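Narrative summary of target 7.
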Amino acid sequence: MNKLSPGISGLLLLSLATPLAAQPTQAKQTPSPQTPSQKAPSQKTKQPAAAKANAPTLQQRWQQVSRQQGEIVLPGGIGKLKLPKQYFYLNPEDSKLVLEKIWGNPAGEERLGMIFPSVSSPFDADSWAVTIGYRSDGHISDKDADKINFETLLRAMQADTQAVNKQRLAQGFQSVQLVGWASVPYYNSDNKKLHWGERLRFAGDDADVLNYNIRILGREGYLLLTFIANIGQLQPPNNNMQNILAMAEFTEGNRYQDYQAGIDKLANYDVAALVAGKALTKGGLLAKALFFIKKFWFIGVLLVGGLAGLLIKRKVGQRRAK
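Modeled conformation, tokenized:
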């Protein structure tokens, strides 16, 4: 049963086998206030109010989440985290509480969890987090990764952004401008980790927002780590980005070097496509992104999973724990 749409149980009224001669007088009487037919409506009216009064607030639900530290194996065993004491991990269910209930985002793809700093909560104006996901599109070849011209790639992405804006405006959404790199893409061929940052500006907004992503290549897919943070929380002397980059890995058997040619699936795109967000336009995700942004009425930090990825916002210092 859907927990958001509780069923309403009807009352079964049982008729007594009373002789017909005894009924005429009773049939003309007005039902007593104590009869079951009168009690049932008042019970139905009171139950939702009582349930609402007893429901925990978002602050109370946040206090009950499971904060995990140390070595964490992600759901499905595909990857793992090694978290020092200044961070903790939230499982997928608790992550939904933060993203959808506290920060007000619509439901999206299933995530593997989130990473949070130990010193803050999602209700803090300066809070930040990292969402974790996985896409099993196949093994991505990195043989040409060192040949990518990132300035040429940026210009292509900016042109793609303008093309996407035509669809966005037609749907009634803000247009967005890809201003430039916040951090030029860097791919480490030794640990198979790719990371980059983009500066975005939405129509009507005065300040740029940050899009920062990490992709870790594996045997038949990649891990997505997406920051929900402002620029100052990632740049030196703050080492959050470098710390997060170091703590996520694939488990043995799922690593890039575990790939078996001729047996495992190959992806139909390369490393450059990951940066450009081309992989995320598959399966209708572009269309979903266009609809998601209209629902984000929060003012604050925004993250985009690639050029056409899913948008995540959080309201800064204004959302109350209702």
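The chain is about 25% helix and 25% strand.
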